[in-house]
Amino acid sequence: MMMASMSVAPLSSPPPPPQSQTTPQRLAIPGSYGWPVIGPLSDRLQYFWFQGPKSFFTKRMEKYKSTVFRTNVPPAFPFFVGVNPNVVAVLDVKSFSHLFDMELVEKANVLVGDFMPSVNFTGGIRVCAYLDTSETKHTLVKEFAIDILRRSSSTWVPSMVTSLDPMWDSIESQLSNSASASAFIPLQQFLFAFLSRSLLGADVTADPEIMKSGHTMIDKWLGLQLLPTINIPILQPLVEIFLHSFPYPFWLVKSDYKKLAKFVQKEAKETLERAQTDFKLTEQEAIHNLIFILGFNAFGGFSLLLSTLVTNLGEQKSVHEELRKEVREKVSSDRGLSSETVKEMELVNSFVYETLRLAPPVPSQYARARKDFDLRSHNSVFEIKKGELLCGYQQIVMRDPNIFENPEEFVYNRFSKAKGGNSLLEYLFWSNGPQSGTQGPSASNKQCAARDAVPLTAAVFLAYLFQRYDDIDISSGSITALKKAK
Question: What is the pTM of this model?
């Protein structure tokens, strides 16, 4: 996940929600899809090679003088049969919010656009992420996921803290023998073990191969599914020729996936039984949805988010002392690190929310029009036809200057109550829905079931560091120095 260079800036009172000063103007949606084959291929090369995703959308916003326009997004030509790259881009907060109105849009098979990886990657079934809210199976699986998080909530933070100890012991050991240490592999090992225990009730130590290589198996499984949609800004044109021109086959990770499924079937028996008795899922439906929840939703998302959090921490050295002071004021000998104490840490939580604003783990969101409707941006109204695919690129949406002051800057205290920024949470959309101001995740919407658990987990991760260390030095995402607390 790439981030623009960011600097710390003070935050004044947040801007009020946008209010239309005049009647919005009704306009035809600008932009075009170009000639068949040529248009999508040209846009794909611009998106991945010549411009990059953020610049691709920004240049078209400037060209059309609109945050809503028609364009193509990858994957496209030559070997993506049946994939339609045509989208309507929605790039301001107001137009983007239509993606969450399930009366207007539907989400069947559009997790990463019109392209859907083979169901062989998910045991031959469409897992919850590819189901629309109108499908009965979506209700069952979504309620199952919410129930998993509810049941694990009381042990989530203690289990996480216990798992963080060996992770940072490992990094300290690396630093004793070298000038820097990468946190990525220890981070992924920590995440796989912690999430397997908390989400599945499965102990990775029961399977030595899974304990050693489970995180790598998930990485390969994710990579092969998503390669056609991921920006890799190096080694062009080889990337376009070999990684972005065709979908990769499941058989390349079939053996690993079977091992993961066997691990879940054997070690997550209690969770699987509950899925079958309480939520009427078959064992196979439960196994493959659990692998997706564990691997795609949780492990994949946290690998990106926590890595970005570490990078941001390195870039925001000047705020370390303030964050450390807050952590240590809230955590004492009689009040340890817990969900309650972490929720009281306004600056720590604001730092996490700002990271989610500028670099959401899932950069793009999609939805297909369920019916004809009027889509509104801040100053215009556009007609959307049933069946049209809407695409929102969050790294631009979350920089909407009508909502966020100094939108390009990393403002560590932007979301703190002291600055009044907590009201901005209703415009923070990383979870496929707003962070506050609605009923939250439910079977009737597609919002991430872990809307609240994800920022809490990132805040615990941050608080743990400032509780454990008096000083932390980070350069380009690598740990260069750690001074343990006295």
Answer: 0.92
